[in-house]
Every structure is written in C-alpha cells, then in structure tokens.
Amino acid sequence: MFTCANCGIVSCEKEEKEVMPKNCPMTTKDYTEITKEYLTEQNKAIFVTAAKIESEGYCEWSRAREVVEFAKRMSYKKIGLAFCKGLKREAKIFDTILRDHGFEVSSIVCKNGGISKEDFGIDDADKLHPGCFEPACNPIAQAIFLNEEKVDLNVVIGLCVGHDTLFYKYAESPVTTLITKDRALAHNPAGALYCYESYYRKQLKAKKNK
Ligand code: SF4
Hints:
This protein is 37% helix and 10% strand.
C-alpha cells in the first residue's frame, strides 16, 4: 500500500533520492515500461501539451481557458459536452466560447432519454420527490452518443458523483472535467477540505463504532 498523501519527505520532487519512505513506489516499482507509455503518439502529444499549458498559463489562466488552449493545441475539431441539467447555463456559455474559437460542439444533457428512475431500479423512496415522475441521469447514454459523434475530446460539466464515474468508464475519446459538481459549495469541493478543521469536520469525520 502507498501513503504518498502522508509522506513528509517528498523526495520524488527533488533531485536527491537517497532518502525515501520504505513503501515509496520508487523503492518498489519499476518505472521503465510506464515511462515508455508516455512516448506513444497520443500520450506524448497530450502530455507535452499539458506541460506547456501549465507553464504558460500558470496561476493566470482559468480552467476554461486551459481547456480551450488544450483543445486548440491538440488540433481537436469536435468537442463533446456531457453536462448536468443543473448547469445548463454554464454548458451553454462554454458551448458559445468553444464555437467562437472555431470548434464544432456536440452537447448532451444528463437527463437525455427522460427515463423514469424506477426503470433503472431506483426505489420511489430514493427519489428527490417520492411519488412524482423523476427522470434518471443517463451518463452511459451521454458517453455512447458522444462516442458515436466521434468527438475528439469530451468535457464534463458538473456530472454527479458516480454518474461521472460511469461517463468516464464508457467514454472512448479523451475526457477532461471543466466543472466538478458540489451543490453545497458552489462547485468548489475543495472548500470542504479547506474548512475541514472547522465547519466541515462534523460532516466529514468518520463515526466510530461503539
Ligand atoms: S513518491 Fe515516495 S517520496 Fe514521493 S511522496 Fe510518495 S512516498 Fe514520498
């Protein structure tokens, strides 16, 4: 098991690598084959482009700008937007930005299909409004339809936790995320971690079994 999140040495970011924790992946793993993976044509293009964007726009470019820059520099032509109905306005704005930059855009909302949650095996009691019709999110259809559209890049805008997991699982083209949904924190999930020592501790702390 690896524990990089709790490492106090972080020698991986330094040139001297004499001191490393015992379970550091650098002491136990062989990086030779993995490093070669970055040299395949597509991976290399993505990786080098990402590095250039990081250095050129560091702490200046918004993520929206970075996505546009990434798509342009990768010479992508067609962008797929997989968005949440709750972020339709944001999806429309980003669609406009992409079209202004010359991209073709194919966008699919999470509720496409309009299929009742019950049809997916979700109990009435687990709906937001039991007793009412509620269409389920359909991330697998979002992925499959954007695969059929042969988009060069998928951009996720605010898909729910778990629905995003299914979208990533079924998407065939590369995916990046523009907005990560957090309904309680204005789509800033890091906020709960920034405030973990204060306001969010009670909500996030594991309950111990008695
Ligand atoms: S890779 Fe090794 S040195 Fe780097 S953070 Fe993980 S355990 Fe620490």
